Amino acid sequence: VRMMHALRTAFGQNQLFVVYQPQIDLETRRPVGAEALLRWQTPDGKFISPDRFIPIAEYSGLIIDLGEWVMRTACRELVDLRKAGHHDFMMSINVSQVQFRHPLFLDMLKRALDDTGAPPEHIELEITESMAMEEPDLLIKMLAQIKQTGVSIAIDDFGTGFSSLSYLQRLQIDRLKIDRAFVTEITGSARGSSIAEMVIQLGRNLGLAVIAEGVEDERQAQILHTLGCPLAQGFLFARPMTATALNGWLSNDA
Ligand code: G
Ligand code: G
Ligand code: MN
Ligand code: NA
Questions:
Q1: CATH architecture of the region 19-36+61-253
Q2: Rounded distance, CA 207 to CA 234, Å?
Q3: CA nearest to 120, candidates 68, 73, 175, 75
Q4: Among 19, 51, 54, residue to substitute to test ligand 1 (most atoms within 8 Å of Cβ)
Q5: What pTM did the predictor assign?
Q6: Which atom number of ligand 2 is nearest to the Cα of residue 126?
Q7: ipTM, 2 decimals?
Q8: What are the EAL domain coordinates in residue numbering (predicted)?
């Protein structure tokens, strides 16, 4: 309860901010987009992880306003990047299931796009695999409506849930994100890459893009590339950074 109150205050006092982690084409090693990630830094300088405060935001309902703010912020930063010349750039935004189930979610999304002028074709929403398995009918309907706006959908933390292939095929999704845990395993045991391989193959069969997350070393990147994984993000390439830093990082790279 104390943290709930602190979070609400923090949001009001602008202690929350959004950072962006670049996503890289493994063939060209060029950035193609970024994932927006929420951060909370308290006045005494301490960082509180979203793993801790997102559940509280969900439980308290604050996630609705907070999630809308993240969406609008990320859209606005994307427009600024475009103005700075980064026209092909994609922006991925995490969406909580509480947010996703809100009756006004679609309106919030459309308003964020309209108000900021962010091109929907350059926006992607990340939903988790566990989310994808609950209430299939609602999900299928929501995905169809989102699709109509031009925004695309990725399944985050893929491989940690238990989606059946036939079910996955019914969902209008665009991209699978291989969970960090399976990327870490790639260089471990002999069978360590089997799940990553399976997801890459699945993506190919279903016509979905695949991105690996949590890539921390060159060996992982090379194995993923060899396995046919087109995209990756992780500390090897870049840590999440502020919008200003991202703009500089992209311009340096160009
Ligand atoms: O950035 P970091 O690895 O600390 O994020 C931890 C978790 O918090 C990840 O699972 C990530 O998806 C989630 N997360 C980060 N930012 C957001 C956000 O803006 N909205 C939601 N719903 N989850 C987020
Ligand atoms: O669940 P989700 O994919 O949204 O979470 C992304 C989280 O993973 C972010 O909190 C981000 O800071 C973190 N992250 C990104 N790249 C790496 C990495 O290479 N290694 C580790 N350990 N964490 C990473
Ligand atoms: Mn994510
Ligand atoms: Na993830």
A1: Alpha-Beta Barrel (3.20)
A2: 24
A3: 75
A4: 54
A5: 0.96
A6: 4
A7: 0.96
A8: 1-254
